[in-house]
């Protein structure tokens, strides 16, 4: 292999590994086509600025990305209130559908002080001059694993739960990132991170920026059916 080709290949792999360290950033990379890493490299400077803003807004471990990917609608598809209600409902449906009793999704990860997740509203496009620039909500919670349950097994259960709800489900090549889309335009995603923990998130379709209500309450815990 030519030296220049080797350097480009190494750079691509380095960027991909960096993206994997942030679940929602990796989600954005995958939303751009799963193989379009060159696209993500080209938008790195803009992306990092947006990610820094998201981090400063309170996301402790992962920058929640915008919905400016190819599959997103150019016109508002929902409202702030509807997005809030539907995201919570989809997290509840996910917990209910898991096969173990009282499956729990939690904002905090036990034993990890810096782990709390938060809801983030981010732009759906890069036109910051538009006063009605479309925005999207994303909210994530940790999937708490019961004693004796491996991350790989829980990940398979999660995939099955989403498939049974007729969501369109796919995985990345390494089987570490899972994404599901439901008919209303909401995207559910999950990843096994480097510590073997699983954050699960839901992202809404877009709605006008003027509707964004950052004072809304989001559940700290979602508990599933006890299957009794």
List strands and helices in order, with pairings.
Layout: H1 3-20, H2 23-31, H3 37-42, H4 44-56, H5 80-97, E1 104-106, E2 120-123, E3 134-144, H6 151-164, E4 168-171, E5 177-181, E6 187-191, E7 198-203, E8 207-208, E9 221-223
Antiparallel strand pairs: 1-3, 1-9, 2-3, 3-7, 3-8, 4-5, 5-6, 6-7
Organism: Gordonia jinhuaensis
Protein name: Lipoprotein
Task: Walk me through what this model shows.
This protein is of the alpha+beta class and 228 residues long. The chain has a domain of 158 residues: TBP-like (2-Layer Sandwich). It has six helices and nine strands. The longest helix has 18 residues. 36% of the residues are buried.
